């Protein structure tokens, strides 16, 4: 069959129209594909960028984590050191508390000892004062006794001197046997001396010398003594505190 020219042009137009649509479709498809590829590339690029960003972030995070880990280790080490310091400080505090408690106990004991020593010291001071008073009284008594002893010794010494001098004038009737030291005289010899002295009244000169000597030794008035009897002389001696009996008792 032969195709008419009109049909031929009509077919050609349709084919051309179809071809143009096909080209247009192909173009749209290509554009779509290109756009898809572009979008895909863009997405790939974005993904790549994201991956790079993630990688950088990961690196940064790793570095940050490493720094944080090091910082954490440093903080942990400092914390451990602080814990050790606190433990050491607590140990020292407990030791200090123990020492303080011991010192407190020792101070308490020392305070009690000091108080006891203070009481002992006060008691000793009181006793010392009392002893000083007693010693003062004893010294006064001792001085008084010493004065009495000295006075008695003085009287005895006067008697000794008197008896020694009087012995030069008395031989009890035995010129060849003098009485010697009057300190050896017995009470009987003293009585014998006075008896012989009384028998010497006729020997005025000798009696006068004896009485003068006696008056000088005992501090009596010579004229008064010279005019006195033996008994009166004895009385004078008694009045001056010089008793022949004391001399007798002393030996």
UniProtKB/TrEMBL annotation:
Q: What is this protein called?
A: Uncharacterized protein
